[in-house]
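Checklist before submission:
- one chain only
- standard amino acids only
- sequence pasted in full

Submission:
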Amino acid sequence: MTKLDQIDEHILRELSRDGRMSNLALAEKVGLSPSACLRRVAALEKAGIITGYRAVLDRAALGSGFVAYITVGLSKHTKDAQKAFERAMSHAPEVRECHNITGQKEYLLRVEAADLAAYKSFHTDVLGTVPQVVSITSYVVMGSPKDERA
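Returned file contents:
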């Protein structure tokens, strides 16, 4: 694990807020020269701490503003059952995140759809047809007062 100092942590905070910030602006915010700042960012990338940059999208503006979290229980607790489920979820564009979790259920999904009807279609026609699935519990997102996913 790479040891981070306060400047590295400051760089990471600033880039998490705005990954498109110019190196000059970042250097000013963290109190470094542009060349020193660029070297540090490159080192953080090389160490695998910064793994990429992405745009944060307004899903509602794109027509997929319906969000639900779903817990999924599998009928079998085998590696083959998990791989088959994960493969099925990797092909479902509505599934934005798929996490293997501990507890009474095996998976937690974050699903985005255009509306309730589109979600129902995913629930019935996609998730409901995966043979390994034995239980599905949906939690519909009513609002997101804090969401720091990049």
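Reviewer check: The chain has two domains: 6-46, 66-140.
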